[in-house]
Amino acid sequence: MTDYDKKNQNNMIHSDEGYPIGVYLVEPDKMYEGFVVHHWHEEAEFDIVKSGTATYVINEEEIEVKEGEGIYINSNVMHSIKGKCVIFSVVFSINGLVGTPGTIQWKTYVEPISENKALKYYIIRSENNRQERAILSYLWDIVNVQLSREFGMELTTQSALCQIWLLFVKLNHLKAIPVSEEKESNDVGRIKGAIDYIKEHYHEEIGLDEISDSIAVSKSECCRCFKRTLGLSPVEFLINYRIHIAAKFLTDSQGISVNVGELAMNVGFNNASYFNRKFKEIMGCTPSQFKREAKSEHRDFLSVRGRSISHI
Question: Residue 163: what are its φ and ψ, rounded to 5°?
Fold first, then answer.
C-alpha cells in the first residue's frame, strides 16, 4: 500500500481502538465536489440534521431528511449526501460497542440489525414514537458533550450511544423496522467492486478495460452501471479519484514539498500538463496554488466524513 493509499482508507482511524466512535460536522455543499461522495464503511452511522434538508442517495434511492430528523445507515451500505444543510454524524464500530461476535449479547442485540438485509437505512422522526424521540435526544446529548469537551465526554458519548442502540433494537423487536432477505442490487454490488479495484490500482496504468474486467462485465455494461448509480463514467470516476488523492496528499506535511510532476505520476497520470488541467477543472485551482494554501480546512472538505468535531 502506497502513502497515497494510506491517506484514503474508508476505515475510521481513532486514537484508541477501545473508543471506536467518531463525531463529525458535515456540510455537503462545502465538500470538494459540492456533495459527500459515494462511499461505504464497516462502521454503522447515526446522523442528525441541524439545519436545512439533506438528500441521501443510499444505493440507488434518494431520501430526504429534514431539519430535526435523524437517519441510521447500516454497515457497508453505499451512500452519498447532498444539499445545503448542516449535519452531525456519529460513526461507530458496533463491535466495539456491544459485545463481540458469537456471544449471546451479539446475537440478541446486534445480529437482528446488522444481518437485516432490508435495513439499508431508517429515518428517525420525533413524531413517530417515543423511542425515536429519545434517540434524537440522545444524539443531541452526544453532539453537545463533544462540543463542550467536558471531562468524561468519551464515557458520556459511549453511554448515550449504548442507549441509542438499545432503543433502536427495541424498535426492531417491535417490528417497526422492515425485515426481509432483500439483496443488494447488481449495479451497487458491481460499483462497489469496481471502486475497490480503482482504489487499489489507481496509481497504475488502468482504464475502462481493466475496470470492466475487474467486475466481469462488458465495457458498455460497466459504463451503464456507473451512469445509473453514480451519474458519471468509470473513467470520470477514476480521474476524480486520482485528483482527490493528489489533493489530500498536498494537504499533508509530506506533500507540501512534493514535486507536482512526481505527484502526477504517483497518482496515475503520465502527463503533468494533463494532470494540472484536470486538477484545476475539478478543484478550481492549480496543484501549486492548492499546495501553497494547504491547511487543515482542506483536509476537512476532502474527507468523505466531514469535519471532526475535535477540529471545531
Answer: -65, -40
